[in-house]
Amino acid sequence: MIYLKNIKKNIKYQNPLEVDELTFEKGKIYSVLGHNGSGKSTLFKILYNIVDFDEGSIDIEGKGFSQEVVYQYMSYNPQKSYFLTGTLRDNFDYLYKYSKNSDLLGKTELELLIKEFNLEHRLDTNIKKLSGGEQAKAQFIRTLLMNKEYILLDEPMASMDFKTIELVEEKLRELKSMNRSVILITHDFVQGNRVSDEIVFMENLKLIGKYKKDEFFKNKLFLSM
Q1: Which of 39, 60, 176, 212 has the CB geometry, 3.0–4.6 Å to 205, for a possible disulfide?
Q2: How far, in whole angstroms, is CA 217 from its chain's centroid?
Q3: Cβ distance 160 to 133 under 8 Å?
Q4: Residue 11 contacts by C-beta under 8 Å, 6 or more apart in sequence?
Q5: Does the predicted TM-score (pTM) go above 0.85?
Q6: What angle in degrees, to the nearest 10, is found between the helix axes of 162-177 and 132-146?
Q7: How distant is the alpha carbon of residue 126 from its chain centre?
Q8: Model confidence over 23-68: pLDDT tens digits?
């Protein structure tokens, strides 16, 4: 379990980000919903220890919170994909050559994912010449390869076509069946309703609450906030 308590992150010229109490458990898909500027991506950067927080505490699996613990348990799919220069193949090869991740999936699994996401014909293409959707596929594959128990996904499907979105959602359900925790930022409330077990709702840099999916959508809680 990931447990956040009394988190406060001061943000220049804005109100602070505040999360009173929040837990993420294994075997569930969470959608983090909220309008632009609600603090969703900042929350992920705090969880992945990219940015510091000013008050409060985070505990991961009873081991506290440190870079070592974060890398042990989490993978992170950022909103903007970052790649090395060279081809798509070069980027995958680099991961296997230099990664110190003992949980990394093998090359057989990589080949299967490349085929599933229809990227075989793009492996020797310069990364800069891939479309936004192709880069998003490659980034998602890299995130799956990390093979972690908590998967943070920040708008991973924003530039994907509908067929690919269906495939990604299938992968999220597979992760859940493996007792992984999927934490998904999305602006698509319909998608949140489709794939999630629970909804984390944020507005104006504050955690409003965590809700069972049916409670959130049937009672239209997002319309009363």
Answers
A1: 39
A2: 22
A3: yes
A4: 17, 42, 205
A5: yes
A6: 10
A7: 25
A8: 999 999 999 999 888 999 999 999 999 999 999 999 999 999 999 9
Q: What is the dihedral of CA 172, 175, 177, 179, to 10 degrees?
A: -130
Per this entry, what is the length of the chain?
Answer: 225
CA dihedral 149, 38, 139, 128 (to 10 degrees): -160
CA distances from 133 to 11, 136, 144, 199, 201 (A): 32, 5, 17, 26, 27
Q: In order of start, what are the domains of the chain with their CATH numbers?
A: 2-224 (3.40.50.300)
Cα end-to-end distance, the chain, whole Å: 28
Angstrom distance (rounded) from CA 167 to CA 71: 26
The burial of 24, by beta-carbon neighbours within 10 Å (0-12 exposed, 13-18 middle, 19 or more buried), is given as buried
**Where would I find the H helices in the chain?**
40-47, 67-73, 88-98, 107-116, 132-146, 162-177, 189-195, 213-218
**Predicted confidence (pLDDT) per residue in 199-219, tens digit:** 999 999 999 999 999 989 887
Spatial separation of the C-alpha atoms in residues 142 and 92, rounded to whole Å:
8
Q: How far apart are CA 12 and CA 194, in angstroms?
A: 36
Closest residue by Cα to residue 94 from 60, 132, 127 = 127
